[in-house]
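Write out this protein's structure.
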Amino acid sequence: MKHPPIRQPLIVGLGRSGAGLHLRALRTALDRSPDAWRGPVVAVDPRPGERAPVPDGVAVVPSLAEARESLPPDRAVVHVCTPPASRPAVLAELCEAGYRDLIVEKPLAADAEELAAVAELRARHGLRLAVVAHWPASALAGRLRDLIGSGGRGRLLRIDVTQHKPRFTRSLRTDDGHPTAFDVELPHSLGLVLSLAGPAETTGARLTDLRIGGTVRPGLGSALLELRHANGVRTRLFSDLTAPVRERRVLLSFERGTAVAHFAPSDADDHVQLVVDGEREVFRDDALTAFLLGTYGRFAGVPADDPSWEEDFALHADAVRLLDAAKRRCAEEPAADRHEEALRVAVR
């Protein structure tokens, strides 16, 4: 029986995500499973080292055409680590070059219009497209699904997500590629809550501006998203990019009891915590590495016409639509109201 060839990573974009998170997780994956992928890693970046140091052992080229000469599409898994606003153009270039197996950073697209462009590319070129979703792939999320599925605490009634982190320096940059606070942290948790509680609709949204002295960055202060799931569960997601401390917490409220999941606040530590009815447990959970190992395994054995690719894409497309609906709601809100809300957030 002929086995599929071991794939080789191609990273597009050596910023914080590509040079830091993806490459680190790829190396950890190789330590755990020596046949996960073969090297060297090839990276495309026209200005390598400008946003993050170029790691050792990475073959950096300035264009996709040069990358294709050393790493043809049939051997490559492409990690798309560019900002969401440029995603359709990057994906179109990759498709034109013949690449079909893609891991795309979240969110899948910046808005509903760009989502339609991505969906068209996917359908026309038969892409196997996986969106980075390490929260749903984590062991901690698996524990939450087990709690919901067991029914031991009754029905799930509510999910409350808190995603806070100070992000002043990056938000003050004009070329960051994340237009609002909805695009920074919430794509992590939105995919998670959709995987836990199913399809939902947007029922409320708030967005505040980042203000430091006389400097204003519209929409980059905090974001609030409220959802009603088809099964009746209510979800509230709140992310404050001006908070003094980092926190990634998911609270599940059942008919009888609660569960609080504390996801790793950064890539500096891969320990997580789970508190169920007051009993706390701490364990290691390198979710991004687990996601990459699982995804490379799927590229090796799951054909493009398998329904699981469509199901995954649909979940992340729903996340984009919900965030787009939230942004549209907030765009209708007067700027003065956003300022007043920002002041209330700042003193909480």
